[in-house]
Amino acid sequence: xxxxxxxxxxxxxxxxxxxxxxxxxxxxxxxxxxxxxxxxxxxxxxxxxxxxxxxxxxxxxxxxxxxxxxxxxxxxxxxxxxxxxxxxxxxxxxxxxxxxxxxxxxxxxxxxxxxxxxxxxxxxxxxxxxxxxxxxxxxxxxxxxxxxxxxxxxxxxxxxxxxxxxxxxxxxxxxxxxxxxxxxxxxxxxxxxxxxxxxxxxxxxxxxxxxxxxxxxxxxxxxxxxxxxxxxxxxxxxxxxxxxxxxxxxxxxxxxxxxxxxxxxxxxxxxxxxxxxxxxxxxxxxxxxxxxxxxxxxxxxxxxxxxxxxxxxxxxxxxxxxxxxxxxxxxxxxxxxxxxxxxxxxxxxxxxxxxxxxxxxxxxxxxxxxxxxxxxxxxxxxxxxxxxxxxxxxxxxxxxxxxxxxxxxxxxxxxxxxxxxxxxxxxxxxxxxxxxxxxxxxxxxxxxxxxxxxxxxxxxxxxxxxxxxxxxxxxxxxxxxxxx
Length: 484
Description:
It is built from 18 helices and no strands. By secondary structure, the protein is mostly helical. Helix 11 (259-290) runs antiparallel to helix 12 and helix 12 (295-331) runs antiparallel to helix 13 (335-362).
C-alpha cells in the first residue's frame, strides 16, 4: 500500500536524524511558542466569559439561555474546527521538510500554502449544514426538552451569534499558519484587542443605553459575531503587512480547489472533528441534562464550565505548540526531537493543571460568586451549587490538561483516527452513562453528572498518554513515525 502523503515510512525512518534539543532547551522552545498561543486561547475564552458575566448580571435566566445556546453553537462548530486544526500538522511538517533541506527551493512553501488553502475550503464546506442547524436552534432545544422560555432566548442568541462561525473558523486556520511559522504574536495581539472591544460592545447590546432598551440575550450573540469578524479582518491585514508572511500568498487563487490536499485535510481533520464532537458534545449534553433540574442547575453548570474551560485554554495552547513542534521535528526527520517535544509539552501541561486543581478546590465559592449579582433572587442557590461543581472540576483538571496536550502531540504525527475512537469510548462509553446514572438513578443531581464527566476525562487522558508513549517510542526506535 502506498503511504499517505506526509507520513514517514519504516524505511524512511532509518534515515531520520536524532538531533533533538536538550530537555531545558526544548522546554524553552515549547514555552516560547505556547505562551502566545495560550494567551490567545485565554483571550478568546475571555470574550465568552465576559458574555457570561454580563448575561449573569442581566438575569439568571439570560445566563442559562446563553449557556444552552453556546453549547449548541460549539457543538455545530466542531466539524469545521477539526479541519481547521488539521492544517497545523500539515503546515508544520511542510516547514520541517524545508528545514531538512536547508530551506532550499520553494517546494515547502507551496506545500504549506496548499495546506492552509485546503483547510479554509474544508471549513467552508462543513459550516454550511452547521448554519442551517443553528438557525433552527430554538426548535431543536425544545425538542430536547428544554423550557420554552429558555429555548426561545437561546434561539435568539444563536441566530445572532451564528454569523461569526465563518470568520472564526478562518481565523483558526490562519492562527495555525502563524504557529507553524513560529509567529504566534499577531493572533495574540488581535484577540487581545478583541477582548477590550467586546466587553463594552456586549454591555451596550445587552443592556442598551441612552433610552434604547438593548437586545438582551441576543445582544451577547451579536457582540461575539462582530468580534469574530473583526479578528479575522485584523489578522489578514497583519499578515499582508508582514514581508515574510505575505510571500506565501495564502488567499491567491483561492477559488482553485486542490483536490489531493483537500482529501488529506479531510483525512486528518475529520477524526479531529470527531474527537472534538465527542468532547464538546458530552459537555453540551451535560448542559442540556442540567435543564432537567431547572434554571439554577443550568446557571451553576455555566459558571463551573466557564471557569474549567478558562483553565483548559492553557494546556490547549501547549497542545497546539506540541502539534507544531512535533510536526516540525517529524517533517525534518528528527525522531528523537519529536519524542522529546511531546513529553516536554505533556509535562508542562500537567504541571499547570495541578496548580489549577488546587485553586479550584480552595477558592470554589468566591469564584462562583464572581459571576453573580448578590441582589438577584436565587443567586445564593446558584453560588452554592456552582461552588460544589467547581470542586468536582478540580478533580479532573490534571486529566483534562494531559489529554489536551497528548492529543496535540499525536496530531503532530498526523495520528487522529485512534484518538477519536478513544475519546468516543471515554466520554460516551463511560463519562456520560456514569454521569446520568449518578444524577438520576443515584439521585445525586448535577453533582452526579459532573462526577461522570470527571471519570470520562480521566480515562481519555490515560488512554491518549499510552497512545503517545507507544507511537513516540516506536518512532524513536526507527519504526513507523505515524504508528502501526
